[in-house]
């Protein structure tokens, strides 16, 4: 499907290697915005879905996105321009390394749905591989950039495979970024934990929340928690 319609915006995705998936929607809907961010940065924008969801959810006046792949970058720009929040959204065509060389701004919220198929085989499609593989943007580079660009009371939010959680938390702690909230995501009640939604801040929280989100009880029968999280976006929720 080249076009995906949400309640308040639509996304074209025919030029993007990574299509809209549950991970991006989860991150866009789950990311804490209690700090009322003025400025947001989405690292690895893809279609622009997460930045658009955060534009809908927040009053942030500056929402920047970063995308290295030219096709995805152009698509993201189109999706931003065709949205109700085009005046607040801007996409940079750059890699993370060049973006952090001369940082001009600090951000109150940094989000990323990073590429993470580290142990998968590579396909014949180089564009898709770039979008999917951690060697395009290692976790440490991402965490280091977040530590550099995050404002004093800012929040850094990611979705990663559950099996990478321990490693990611240790790397973040080395850069003095501490968990604020963790949600473990399961497809159904009986499947294993597949994803970790992690939010960090510069302040160490002793009794931060760790909870679980189950997406569906059976095929296309969504849990009340998942519906509650996504109903502002999905047309059929």
UniProtKB/TrEMBL annotation:
Taxonomic superkingdom: Bacteria
Reaction catalysed by this enzyme: adenosine(37) in tRNA1(Val) + S-adenosyl-L-methionine = N(6)-methyladenosine(37) in tRNA1(Val) + S-adenosyl-L-homocysteine + H(+)
Short name of any one Pfam family annotated for the protein: MTS
Entry's localization field: Cytoplasm
This enzyme's EC code(s): 2.1.1.223
Domain Methyltransferase small: 39-125
GO molecular function: methyltransferase activity
Alphabetical UniProt keywords: Cytoplasm, Methyltransferase, S-adenosyl-L-methionine, Transferase, tRNA processing
GO biological process, one term: methylation
InterPro entries: DNA_methylase_N6_adenine_CS, SAM-dependent_MTases_sf, Small_mtfrase_dom, tRNA_Adenine-N(6)_MTase, tRNA_adenine-N6_MeTrfase
CDD domains linked to this entry: AdoMet_MTases
Purpose: Specifically methylates the adenine in position 37 of tRNA(1)(Val) (anticodon cmo5UAC).
PANTHER family per UniProt: TRNA1(VAL) (ADENINE(37)-N6)-METHYLTRANSFERASE
Family named by the database record: Belongs to the methyltransferase superfamily. tRNA (adenine-N(6)-)-methyltransferase family.
Official protein name in the record: tRNA1(Val) (adenine(37)-N6)-methyltransferase
Species whose genome carries this gene: Flavobacterium algoritolerans
């Amino acid at each position: 499907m080249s076009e995906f319609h949400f309640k308040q915006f639509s996304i074209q995705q025919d030029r993007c290697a990574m299509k809209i998936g549950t991970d991006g929607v989860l991150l866009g809907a789950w990311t804490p915005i209690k700090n009322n961010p003025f400025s947001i940065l989405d690292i690895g924008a893809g279609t622009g879905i997460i930045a658009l969801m955060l534009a809908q959810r927040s009053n942030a006046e500056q929402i920047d996105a970063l995308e290295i792949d030219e096709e995805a970058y152009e698509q993201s720009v189109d999706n931003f321009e065709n949205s109700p929040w085009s005046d607040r959204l801007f996409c940079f065509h750059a890699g993370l390394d060049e973006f952090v060389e001369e940082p001009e701004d600090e951000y109150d919220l940094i989000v990323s749905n990073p590429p993470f198929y580290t142990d998968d085989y590579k396909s014949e499609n180089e564009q898709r591989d770039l979008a999917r593989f951690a060697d395009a943007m290692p976790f440490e580079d991402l965490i280091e950039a977040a530590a550099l660009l995050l404002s004093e009371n800012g929040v850094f939010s990611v979705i990663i495979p559950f099996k990478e959680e321990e490693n990611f938390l240790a790397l973040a702690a080395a850069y003095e970024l501490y968990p604020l909230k963790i949600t473990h995501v399961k497809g159904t009640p009986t499947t294993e934990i597949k994803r970790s939604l992690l939010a960090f801040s510069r302040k160490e929280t002793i009794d931060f929340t760790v909870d679980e989100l189950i997406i569906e009880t059976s095929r296309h029968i969504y849990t009340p928690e998942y519906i509650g999280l996504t109903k502002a976006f999905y047309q059929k929720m």
